[in-house]
């Protein structure tokens, strides 16, 4: 692209043509560009840096040798203005530049929506992780407090229950960490595609750009935002104390998300309750 910067201004033919008028397809120096923008007929013309311009010329119709500036919506083909009265007579048409603007807008809207949703999911997952970690610590403290009320004979039962809490809570936390990793991957993918989108904004607007933007659109559509399941919650419930039933002194904990059916498993120093759904 940099070769275009060496061209000479096509108006004064003396200064370097550092600016390119997209509408006139001519190079202008700084002064001539200023004058061009002051004129009534050309005040709305668009410029780009000559160094950013793609060297190749615009695509031409193979039949009429004119610029391919339209898309035939009926045939899904790029055509020139003369094709409109020829074999495409009676069809509906769109300006290529309008199609590009529409595609860019659609891609940006979709990308923003998905990245925003990914950010929201990350915030919810991280918040749930913090709450869940605090709840786990609270349950462990409650279990220890209850265990301290019991003498040496129940120390083993306390240790077993804490291990079970950590084991089951680790499973739930691992699920959340996996969900967090997936959400961050979507966000990284979204940022990468956003960079591609910005790069395409600098690309010359012609028929080949439509395919590139459509390719980007397909990549954006592949970004999958997984729906969030119900987040786990952990709590501790005290058991009624009975002198003849040591296991009731420890109490039970539940991770409420799975609505578990508890199965009783006989232990040497009391009964251990296990969730049949989570194991």
Automatic annotation (TrEMBL):
Residues 4-50, 56-96 form the B box-type domain. Keywords: Metal-binding, Zinc, Zinc-finger. It holds the Pfam family zf-B_box. SMART domains: BBOX. GO terms for molecular function: ubiquitin protein ligase activity; zinc ion binding. PROSITE patterns: ZF_BBOX. One of its GO terms (cellular component) is nucleoplasm. This is B box-type domain-containing protein. It comes from Mytilus edulis. The lineage of its organism: Eukaryota, Metazoa, Spiralia, Lophotrochozoa, Mollusca.
